[in-house]
Amino acid sequence: MFDFNIVRKASSDYPKPADFHPSYGTAGFRSKATLLSSTVFRCGLLAASRAILLNSHTGLMITASHNPVDDNGVKMVDPNGGMMPQSFEAVATELANCEDDDAVVAVLRDRVFSPMSSGSPRSAAGGALTVLIGHDTRPSAPSLLAAALAGVRALAVHAHSYGCVTTPQLHFLVHSANQIPAAPLPQLQSYFDVIVGAFLELTKGGELEAAGAGSNSSLLVVDCANGVGAEQLGKLVPALESLGVEMQLRNTGRGGGQLNYQCGADFVQKDRLLPTEMNDVPVGSRCCSVDGDADRLVYFSPLKGGGISLLDGDKVAMLAAVYIRDVMELLPAELLHDIQVCCVQTAYANGAATAYLQNILRLPTVCTPTGVKYLHEAAHNADLGIYFESNGHGTVLFSKTFVERLKAMEDHPAAKELLLLSQLINQTVGDAISGILLIEFILRRKRWTLQDWQALYTDLPSRQLKLQVADRSSITTADAERVCITPAGIQDAITRVISGFTHGRAFVRPSGTEDAVRVYAEAEIQEQADELARLVARIVYDMAGGVGPRP
Ligand SMILES: CC(=O)N[C@H]1[C@@H](OP(=O)(O)O)O[C@H](CO)[C@@H](O)[C@@H]1O
Ligand SMILES: [Mg+2]
Q1: pTM (two decimals)
Q2: Given CA atoms 431, 432, 433, 439 in this order, what sign does their dihedral have?
């Protein structure tokens, strides 16, 4: 049993910097790493508290994903391998903002351990309750890991560090740790056994042909963002080799490159540029980029004369949707009775992707606010929920009902294939490693080149900008962030500007991971999308207290 005096004493080693007011944002707490020790210590307390309250193992991932190397952050993982429920975020923010050790104890005792916030126990972990911890490659990881361990242990809960692992690997491990009460904690190898095992089973039989006849069809060049993906992706090389794919890793961190600097999925998707260390990659090659913690994936191909042809998260979603639809069409009708399929996007989804989904695939679509926590929840409401952010975060969720029905018909080849897909695709959170295997499998199966995939639909030209304002919380939104509510009058001004552009669409929202306001615009041609984004950024600058030079 724990003792709040021990918590109080341990907390005194991790004082909160004055004037630091963290909040649980789009994907957990994020900030400059030097500010975060108290936050991570308190997240250790929180993860341990949830383990106690739910009588299950929980998880904590120390990462700032695609952010610059000097940032860091922490994401909490619940016993089911999913993200911490949103209902708990306010308490997390309150705990992180306590000014002294007495306040930390008070919030923990009165708010965290109050019956209102705890929820009901789901699965019995048996054995020793443990918080599973992972971290990315940031130099600040060791000291923040020490803070997390101190927080967990202050509540007399065990902590197990998996070291440098990807965010999706940690989510997977937390989920599997809770499957069999009192079983030993899973090894990282179990992740590869399940995901790569399903891939090998799916590709068995050798009837898969190389994707197209292009001379580079066997080559896959992966930009690892100088992040944690490099080491873990290396372990896929033999599996892909069995499919005739030669995977070459770039930006592995071993050449001295900086994390996420001019490389990685966020850079490629937002700047539409070839990542550093890839200038020698032949035009037309199949390439992909992951982000710093390998939960995002985008594909691309270098173009003649520079630039890239990008296949973003929307395109990944459509490829998965098309393929899964093909397989489902082979299933007996009774198996599909009442099975709901749904595709979840955010306002950042390209208008052409949404139109393809609705008009060609005729799939029900849902639009949620930015952040996987919203998309994941919406996808869970369907039996087969496909969700991807345009930046490459996402996965395909299979409901229990659907999996049970597939299991009952496992002798049917299409049912078996979907079951294997449900294992290949990480069910806890979006996963770049599992995503690469899925895409490589589908491309082979359909005998598609990147060009075939790209041709599913043509993206509307778009532009994303960000700018700083005095207080980004002065901007509030509604309707899945597509409409600005405050400052008063800003939406009218934006709507007026949009009306001057053919196929114009634009919106603004405060970032949940950076001190910035993001602007998105799309229009019929690139110059117009650029111009619309600039005009909208100006409106934000003028009406919401822009800082620095006017856009
Ligand atoms: C436009 C954009 O790409 N936003 C990203 C970014 O959130 P912001 O709240 O926009 O900073 O980081 C999130 C976490 O990685 C990711 O879920 C989200 O999609
Ligand atoms: Mg990430």
Answers
A1: 0.93
A2: positive
CATH 3.40.120 fits 313-432+446-454, yes or no: yes
* Ligand 1 atom, smallest distance to 389 CA: 19
Q: Distance between CA 224 and CA 63 in Å, rounded? A: 15
| The two structure tokens encoding residue 137 | 């490659």
Boundaries of every domain in the chain = 4-186, 201-311, 313-432+446-454, 462-543
Is 65 labeled as catalytic in the residue annotation?
Answer: yes
63 membership: H or E segment, kind and range: none
CATH of domain 462-543: 3.30.310.50
Q: Ligand 1 centre and the CA of 511: distance in Å?
A: 7
> Which pLDDT score, from 0 to 100, does residue 26 have?
78
Range scoring the smallest mean pLDDT among 122-126, 152-156, 157-161, 387-391: 122-126
Specify the DSSP element, H or E, that contains 288: strand 286-290
Ligand lying nearest the CA atom of residue 430: 2
Q: Which CATH class is domain 201-311?
A: alpha beta
User: Which is more confident, 120 or 244?
Assistant: 244
* Ligand (nearest to CA of 269): 1
Q: Please check the confidence at residue 529 and state whether its pLDDT lies above 50.
A: yes
4-186, which class in CATH?
alpha beta
Q: Please tell me the residue having the least CA distance from ligand 1 atom 17.
A: 371
The catalytic residue among 11, 38, 65, 285 is 65
- Residue 511 labelled as part of a binding site: yes
CA-CA distances (angstroms) from residue 433 to 68, 160, 443?
Answer: 22, 23, 16
The string of pLDDT tens digits covering residues 247-277 is 999 999 998 899 999 999 999 999 999 999 9
Domains 313-432+446-454 and 462-543 share a fold: no
Nearest CA to ligand 1 atom 16: 371
Closest CA to 352 of 310, 394, 401: 310
Give distance in angstroms: CA of 371 to centre of ligand 1. 6
For residue 290, the ligand closest to its alpha carbon is 2
Residue 189 near residue 85, CB atoms below 8 Å: no
Name residue, tokens 């896929």: 236
Please answer whether residues 443 and 482 qualify as being in contact, where contact means their C-beta atoms are separated by less than 8 angstroms: no
Residue listed under structure tokens 């998309």: 375
Ligand 1 within 6 A of CB of 310: no
Is the confidence at residue 310, as pLDDT, over 60? yes
Residue 291 to residue 289: CA distance in whole angstroms: 7
pLDDT at 459: 96
pLDDT tens-digit series, residues 49-102: 999 999 999 999 999 999 999 999 999 999 999 999 988 999 999 999 999 999
Q: Ligand 1: distance of its center to the CA of 435 in Å?
A: 19
Q: pLDDT, tens digit, for every residue of 379-415?
A: 999 999 999 999 999 999 999 999 999 999 999 999 9
Does residue 214 sit in helix, strand or coil?
A: coil
Q: What is the 3-state secondary structure (H, E, C) of 441-473?
A: HHHHHHCCCHHHHHCCCCCCCEEEEEECECCHH
- 513 C-beta closer than 6 A to ligand 1: yes
